[in-house]
Amino acid sequence: MSDPYGDRGNKDRSITKGGSSTLQAGRYSGQPGPAASDEPFLIGSAMTGGYGKGPDILHDCTIAVEKGEIAVIVGPNGAGKSTAMKAVFGMLDLRGGDVRLDGESIASLSPQARVVKGMGFVPQTQNIFTTMTVEENLEMGAFIRKDDFRGTMEQVYDLFPILKEKRRQKAGELSGGQRQQVAVGRALMTRPKVLMLDEPTAGVSPIVMDELFDRIIEVARTGIPILMVEQNARQALEIADKGYVLVQGCNAHSGTGQDLLADPEVRRSFLGG
Amino acid sequence: MDALNALVALTNFVIVPAVAYGSQLALGALGVTLVYGILRFSNFAHGDTMAFGAMIVVLVTWGLQGAGVSIDPLPTALLAIPFGILGTIVLVLITDRLVYRFYRAQKAKPVILVIVSMGVMFIMNGIVRFIIGPGDQRFADGERFIVSARDFKEWSGLAEPLAIRTTQGITVVTAVIVVALLFWFLGRTRTGKSMRAYSDNEDLALLSGINPERVVMVTWIIVAALATIAGTLYGLDKSFKPFVYFQLLLPIFASAIVGGLGNPLGAIAGGYLIAFAEVAITYPLKKVLGYLLPESLAPDGLVQLLSTDYKFAVSFVILLIVLLFKPTGLFDGRAH
User: Fold this and answer.
1) Are residues A21 and B115 in contact, defined by beta-carbon separation less than 8 angstroms?
2) A19 to B201: CB separation less than 8 angstroms, yes or no
3) What is the DSSP string of B12-54?
4) Which CATH superfamily is domain A38-118+230-273 in?
5) pLDDT grade, residue B330 (50/70/90)?
6) For chain A, what is the mean pLDDT?
7) Does A14 sit within 8 Å of B208, measured CB to CB?
8) Is a pLDDT exceeding 90 seen at residue A3?
9) pLDDT grade, residue B108 (50/70/90)?
10) B78: distance to nearest CA of chain A, Å?
11) pLDDT digit string (tens) for B246-287?
12) A40, B215, B324, B336: least buried by Cβ within 10 Å?
């Protein structure tokens, strides 16, 4: 017996189209704290919260990235890595802690408003406009800009030469690695002050992964701080200036990438020896 | 000579009417496909939106005719179309504000919006009948034919006549212009691209700073214009009767779905496919076959595959066949 009150009608694509928005702005019910004088450029400090009325997923979790650095969030499955990043981006209901960008609290802003403030976000999946050309994807990335963005587009093409070659091609026709480049390029079009990547190497082959990491380093060299969630902990920590190991929504370890790689406890507990 | 006569008969009774009807369906289907792509539901009120737009055009046309305004040999209704579009824009924007926006704010499931659009359909239907009445209204004027049957016979010396009505010519020309404008808008302008982006990936569009309410508003404005033009062209070509627009929903939806919902190119192809199938299958082929076949094989009956009373069945059958074998439509609306 099928469930008469099930969701079947919504899946009938001859009358309804799927993919409606899942983007939900989180509610902030914490107290914004004062900014410390020498605190990092972007900091989510002592974040506690979860989705909606659900239980807390993050407990007193702190994530930060300095100017010109790459910070990486790693941890076992279900540790709340992506959740921590979403909290920084305003997609989680924060009940404690604060998020500050350049000393200013942005914890009560919606994700869209944070983009305007200078945060670039690349979601893990569905991060490109598949039916539009590569160039149109970049144009849409620059939608909030009223000035001439052709210079930025040239910079993106310099960073990702393959995109220039394929700029008239539909983004959905590209390979996994190229799609990720489109996604990062789209986010760069706003000229963000900080770039956040949610598992940029998910689902690509190891060779492509190495290339993507090289590109990410190049983006960081242009002066844009990068906050990144990664499954491939070892490779990610190798390129990281700062690493955060999360376990069950808490900061388990943090330090420079090299320190964490050398830390016997980190190695034993989840880098696999 | 016989082959030529057969060709002229086929052109006169099948090709010309089907091209005109197909253009009208294509314009209607474009409206449906735009709402589907952007607002993510099938808008059952589209037929009655067309009726409303055409009604305003009819009323304004009468007013203009009464005032003695004329653009002979073209029908006066062409002058009234901008008024119809404005009126329909007001109607759909008010509807959106009062009805659809509420459900969007609730993040209602698309299937709920489908049912809501049915309610809107009945209300629009009632408004149109209340204002202009349920009967047949004629509002076409100007020159009736571009090519009249007698002129063609004299000119060609053939036994078969060919007539092209002014309304058929206007329909095709208008459809071409409107479609070209629409594609230019969607493909080249910033707002058009933002509509495609929103249709493609709503979350990413929001993250890119695209304002959904603005996209929705622009969509309704375009849909209102398309519906008014399609409704007026259909009314000019046949005649204006509110109930007929409700009946048009089926072939319009069939066109949009056959082409691939959400795909404008598919909507146009679907419109012509449905129109040609409908006209060709309900046309008695006796005359054409009489010319082509040797006398001994000439058919006795009408060779009409289906009575015109059943013409709606044609769109239904095509719809079923396409959904069975290629559920996402011939042009693949959503396989992204």
Assistant:
1) no
2) yes
3) IIIIHHHHHHHHHHHHHHHHHHHHHHHH-B--TTHHHHHHHHH
4) P-loop containing nucleotide triphosphate hydrolases (3.40.50.300)
5) confident
6) 90
7) no
8) no
9) confident
10) 33
11) 999 999 999 999 998 889 999 999 999 999 999 999 998 888
12) B324
Identify all chain B residues contacting A17, using CB atoms and an 8 Å cutoff. Answer: 36-37, 40-41, 110, 261-262, 334
**Taking 90 as the threshold, does the pLDDT of residue A266 lie above it?**
no
Q: What is the pLDDT of residue B223?
A: 98
**Interatomic CA distance for residues B289 and A164, integer angstroms:** 57
- CA–CA distance, B30 with B224 (Å, rounded to integer): 11
Distance of residue B234 Cα from the nearest chain A Cα, in angstroms? 25
Q: How many CB atoms lie within 10 A of CB B296?
A: 5
Arithmetic mean of pLDDT, B109-125 = 94
Q: What is the mean pLDDT of residues B26-36?
A: 96
Q: Is residue A267 predicted with pLDDT exceeding 50?
A: yes
What percentage of chain A has pLDDT greater than the value 70?
Answer: 97
The Cα–Cα gap between B14 and B287 comes to 12
Q: Which of A115, A126, A140 sits opposite B197 (nearest CB)?
A: A140
Whether the CB-CB separation of A141 and A160 falls below 8 Å is answered with no
Assess contact for B323 and B330: CB atoms under 8 A.
Answer: no
Q: How confident is the model at residue A5 (pLDDT cuts 50, 70, 90)?
A: low
Residue type, A174: L
> Closest residue of B to A114, CA-based?
B207
Complex ipTM: 0.89
With CB atoms and an 8 Å threshold, state whether B202 touches A19.
yes
Compute the distance between CA of residue B327 and CA of residue B111 in angstroms, rounded to an integer: 18
Nearest Cα of chain B lies from the Cα of A179 at a distance, in angstroms, of: 13
Q: Report the CATH architecture of B2-244.
A: Orthogonal Bundle (1.10)
Residue of A nearest to B114 (CA): A15
pLDDT of residue B336: 37
Buried b (16+ CB within 10 A) or exposed e, B241-261: bbebbbebbbbbbbbbbbbbb
Segment A112-115 long-range contacts (CB within 8 Å, at least 24 positions apart): A112/A25, A112/B206, A112/B207, A112/B209, A114/A89, A114/A90, A115/A144, A115/A190, A115/A192, A115/B207, A115/B208, A115/B209
Distance from CA of A219 to the nearest CA of B (A): 20
Whole-number Å distance between alpha carbons of A230 and B293: 74
Q: B193–A111: do the CB atoms touch at under 8 Å?
A: no
Q: Closest partner residue to B200 among A130, A141, A143, by Cβ?
A: A130
Task: Kindly identify which residue of chain A lies nearest to residue B261, measuring between CA atoms.
Answer: A14
Cis peptide before B73 (omega within 30 of 0): yes
Position A10 confidence tier, pLDDT thresholds 50, 70, 90: confident
Question: What are the backbone dihedrals phi and psi of residue A168, each rounded to the nearest 5 degrees, phi first?
Answer: -90, 0
Q: Which residues of B touch A172 (CB under 8 A)?
A: 336
Q: Identify the burial level of B2 via C-beta atoms within 10 angstroms of its C-beta, where 0-12 means exposed, 13-18 middle and 19 or more buried.
A: exposed
Is the CB of residue A232 less than 8 Å from the CB of residue A216? no
Give me the pLDDT at residue B335, please: 39
Radius of gyration of chain A (CA): 19
Residue A122 distance to chain B (closest CA, Å): 9
> Given CA atoms B304, B310, B315, B320 in this order, what sign does their dihedral have?
negative
| Domains of chain A by residue range | 38-118+230-273
